[in-house]
Design brief:
The complex is a heterodimer of chains A (149) and B (489). Chain A is 68% helix and 0% strand. With 149 residues, chain A is an all-alpha fold. Classes of the chains: A mainly alpha (149), B mainly alpha (489).
Chain lengths: 149, 489
């Protein structure tokens, strides 16, 4: 099955889950529409579009002349490692954000992400992490009054 | 009219300068957005008094439109929603080494459109505002639907994928409070979700965090830090010549769209891009780094910002988050906007309008010479730039509601946005769907209620019928081409 067909199935699953969730809200009538009516329309529209994409992807797959690069380029499997590590780091970051605060978590985030992106050594990532976080703190917390944890 | 010159007094000039500089910075920073920044400085502006305070707030509002294009062009991260569409061609121009030219054209387009919209605001405000007010829910629905359908042609890739992303955006917009009845939907008892998904968190995630992850996946690519040749910082004669028609079209279109309630600057930029795809002589180049894709939308979103001031100043009705903050500021300063504003506070009314002229000149003088400074950002290696983008995204997402839930939304949107890129989906239609969702729902349900459940009420008026027919025709066009292709095969 092609990647477009996989994503069409994913969209259909999302639409069905959404429609199941929408069953909790009343539809009422067209004259007095309830909170479930518009989500029902949106869910059905996505389901129809997913079916359309599934069918279209099939016809594309049968067409031998279809160029592979008509859409955004796919991520090469070999390069998925660093972003996947980063995804894990971001999840840990969000979990610790309120617990230990913006400053220490952001210093760690910048340090690790810059290392992952190829910034060598220890002092340069550390300086970058402290610099970016301190500058953000001054601008947003001190000057603009954003109450970061 | 003589009160126009109130804007030239030193305190008001200073307020205008500070506002436009802050606005440009806010526009450059991804996520924070003009409404958030205006709300943050509201306590300060109250201390300045009504005229200077409102001049500063207005400066942030239209300054952000100028600055928003900068990060769209340089790092593929829109500073605010109205610059989302600029990423499509602006960033590709940067990757071709034409970042400076794209930034300069964006600044010139913003100046032309901003000046035009102020003249129109000054001369035609009462008449045009009255016409816009004649729109009922059916017309709003038809207009938003037409915008969505036009959007399907936006990315130049799969129309069905674009439409699917619009619908996903609309579905995400249904999370939280129902816009009519006040019921809470799809929150699954998560307290932070009751206000719905933060637009800023979703946008910063889909564009900012996803960009960081994509850059990590392609460490050797020039995705983030496109090399800029400083000898080519300013647009060539050919680029300037090609920019003029889309700039003028975007200006008029943006101003008219600005009169319509809703996220006018965002819609205007998308509609302008759609129009360029249809009428531009160079439409085949759109999506690959065409200067028309920068000039048209940038003119449109700036003209829309001016147009959006008309209902606020002449009728006291804010139709965008930014003008809503302006309204709050006015009320806090004991200035009631509306038909009596000119009679009761002529210095405030003309002072603010006069500051638009001054502010547009300031922004042009600020943006053109500093194009080089902004362009230098693109030469910073991604390993230095992208960690900073991450932190800015977190701050922007959190500052929207001061809620950790929005940081989770940011992270989730970033991961989904990265996956979407890999699967060939453009996040821009999703973002527009998220913005248009509540407007579509509210207007559709109100129109149905007014028509007592009769769906013919949706196309009973001339404007709504015309817009719906246009939406149907635009929708059917790709189907017709598919059928023709199959018949030929």
């Amino acid at each position: 099955m092609s990647r477009d067909r996989h994503s069409a199935v994913g969209l259909a699953v999302f639409a069905i889950a959404y429609l199941l969730g929408d069953r909790r809200y009343p539809l009422d009538t067209l004259a007095t529409p309830g909170p479930g009516l518009f989500p029902l329309m949106a869910g059905l529209a996505l389901l129809a579009l997913a079916a359309w994409q599934f069918a279209t992807a099939g016809s594309h797959a049968r067409a031998p002349a279809q160029p592979a690069s008509t859409t955004l380029q796919a991520v090469e499997p070999a390069a998925v490692g660093p972003p996947l590590v980063m995804v894990g780091i971001l999840i840990v970051y969000a979990a610790l954000f309120r617990l230990i605060g913006f400053f220490p978590t952001s210093v760690a985030l910048v340090f690790v992400s810059s290392r992952l992106m190829g910034l060598g050594g220890w002092w340069r990532p550390a300086t970058l992490a402290l610099g970016i976080t301190a500058a953000s703190h001054v601008v947003f917390v001190r000057w603009l009054g954003v109450p970061l944890p | 009219m003589s009160d126009l010159f109130v804007a030239l007094t030193p305190p008001n000039l200073l307020a205008c300068f500070v506002g436009t500089v802050l606005g440009t910075i806010v526009g450059v920073l991804p996520g924070l957005g003009p409404a958030g920044a205006m709300a943050l400085v509201l306590p300060l502006t109250i201390k300045l008094g009504p005229t200077a305070g409102l001049i500063m707030l207005a400066g942030i509002y239209y300054g952000a439109m100028y600055g928003g294009s900068t990060t769209s062009i340089l790092v593929n991260v829109p500073g605010e929603a109205a610059s989302v569409v600029t990423t499509i061609d602006g960033y590709r121009l940067a990757r071709k080494g034409r970042a400076g030219a794209a930034l300069a054209v964006a600044a010139i387009a913003s100046f032309v459109a901003g000046t035009f919209s102020v003249v129109a605001l000054q001369l035609a405000a009462p008449l045009v505002a009255r016409a816009a007010l004649a729109f009922g829910p059916a017309e709003y629905f038809a207009f938003a639907l037409l915008g969505v359908v036009l959007l399907a042609n936006l990315t130049g890739g799969s129309r069905v994928k674009s439409l699917a992303m619009v619908v996903v955006g609309i579905m995400l917009a249904t999370v939280g409070m129902d816009p009519l009845g006040g019921s809470v939907r799809f929150t699954f008892d998560v307290a932070g979700a009751q206000a719905g998904f933060s637009f800023i968190a979703v946008t910063a995630g889909l564009f900012g965090v996803a960009e960081v992850l994509t850059t990590m996946a392609e460490p050797a690519s020039t995705l983030a830090a496109a090399k800029v040749k400083f000898s080519e910082l300013y647009p060539s004669r050919e680029e300037l010549r090609r920019s003029v028609p889309p700039m003028l079209r975007g200006t008029v279109l943006g101003f008219l769209v600005g009169l319509i309630p809703g996220p006018a600057a965002t819609i205007a930029s998308f509609v302008s891009y759609g129009v360029e795809q249809k009428v531009s002589k160079y439409r085949h180049e759109l999506g690959t780094g065409a200067i028309e894709g920068v000039a048209g939308p940038e003119a449109a979103n700036n003209a829309a910002a001016g147009g959006g001031m008309i209902p606020l100043l002449s009728l006291g009705l804010p139709f965008t988050p930014s003008t809503a903050v302006l309204l709050s500021g006015m009320l806090l300063m004991s200035v009631t906007p509306g038909p009596f504003l000119l009679r009761d506070h002529p210095q405030v009314f003309w002072g603010v309008i006069g500051s638009f002229y001054v502010g547009n000149v300031m922004l042009l003088l600020l943006n053109l010479p500093l194009v080089g400074v902004f362009a230098r950002v693109a030469t910073i290696p991604s390993r230095y730039l992208m960690p900073g983008v991450l932190v800015l995204c977190v701050v922007a997402a959190y500052s929207d509601n001061n809620n950790v839930f929005d940081v989770w939304v940011l992270v989730a949107a970033g991961i989904i946005g990265w996956a979407m890129r890999g699967l060939g989906y453009n996040p821009a239609p999703l973002v527009l769907g998220l913005v248009l969702g509540p407007l579509l729902e509210r207007s559709l349900l109100q129109a149905l209620t007014i028509a007592r459940g009769d769906v013919r009420g949706l196309w009973s008026s001339g404007p709504s019928a015309v817009m719906l027919i246009a939406a149907v025709l635009v929708s059917l066009a790709p189907l017709v081409s598919v059928v023709r292709r199959r018949v030929r095969a």
